[in-house]
Amino acid sequence: MIMTRQFQSTVRLLVAAIAVAGLVLIGVAAAGPAQAAGLRNCTELSSSPRSGCWEDVWVGGAEHRFVFATGCCTQFKGHVPDDLDAFYVIAAQDDPPQSLNASFRHDHVVRDTAPQNHGDYSTRLHGFFVLCSESGIASGACVFEMNSPQPGFTLPFAKSVNGQALTSVEPLEAAVGAGLITLFDTGAVIVGSIQQNQ
Q1: Which helix (DSSP H) or strand (DSSP E) does residue 67 occupy?
Q2: Model confidence over 73-110: pLDDT tens digits?
Q3: Who has greater pLDDT, 118 or 147?
Q4: pLDDT tens, 33-63?
Q5: CA angle, corner 136, sides to 156 and 184, nearest 5?
Q6: What φ, ψ does residue 164 adopt, rounded to 5°?
Q7: Rounded to whole angstroms, how far apart are CA atoms 121 and 193?
Q8: How far apart, in whole angstroms, are the C-alpha atoms of residue 49 and residue 140?
Q9: Per the structure, how many domains does the chain have?
Q10: CB within 8 A of 96, min separation 6: which ones?
Q11: How far apart are CA 198 and CA 189, in angstroms?
């Protein structure tokens, strides 16, 4: 699958526009667990700014709450390390999806929470779309759902690989290594906190 520079530029601009989905809520430190109780789900909000909302993310096969720090259109101004961990955007694993914005049904996957923090920690993550590769589709190993993160751009978001759900990082990254999945760098830096579900 060939991704053009124009498409990458368009997707990077799109990232700010799909904040309802919670993909790119960027900013500074997130609200703590006590504050999160009164927050609304990001998918329920319909106007900017979308400050301090939450969505679920898959962490090691279980859903946890991710509290996004600030609104959709705030540019992250801090230093961004080169080795940020990933915030993967995949096809919905269950119904309803974790995020729904018109034709862009999707879920999120992040690495396991830090046990020394009892599962609560603030972090910056690098956003990636998780797409079935040409070879993954041709072999039938990668099951996908067509999604349109922006009108005119419909992409095969990965749903499962070799019959395995993508609700944890390990099978997802193994599928990348096997060439069955392609990661598309959105250029987004997501800031928030991952919390144990209440």
Answers
A1: strand 62-68
A2: 344 556 666 678 899 999 999 888 988 765 688 999 99
A3: 147
A4: 434 456 777 776 655 545 677 888 999 999 9
A5: 50
A6: -100, 130
A7: 5
A8: 41
A9: 1
A10: none
A11: 26
How far is it, in rounded angstroms, from Cα 82 to Cα 3?
A: 22
Tokens 């929470």 appear where?
113
Structure tokens at 162: 């070799």
Its sign, for the CA torsion 27, 33, 34, 38, is: positive
For residue 56, what are the domain limits?
5-195
Q: Which range is least confidently modeled, 10-14, 98-102, 153-157? A: 10-14
SS3 of residue 130 by DSSP: strand
- Tell which residue, 187, 38, 20, has the closest CA to residue 105: 20
Report the pLDDT value the prediction gives residue 149, as an integer from 0 to 100: 87
CB 178, CB 162: distance < 8 Å: no
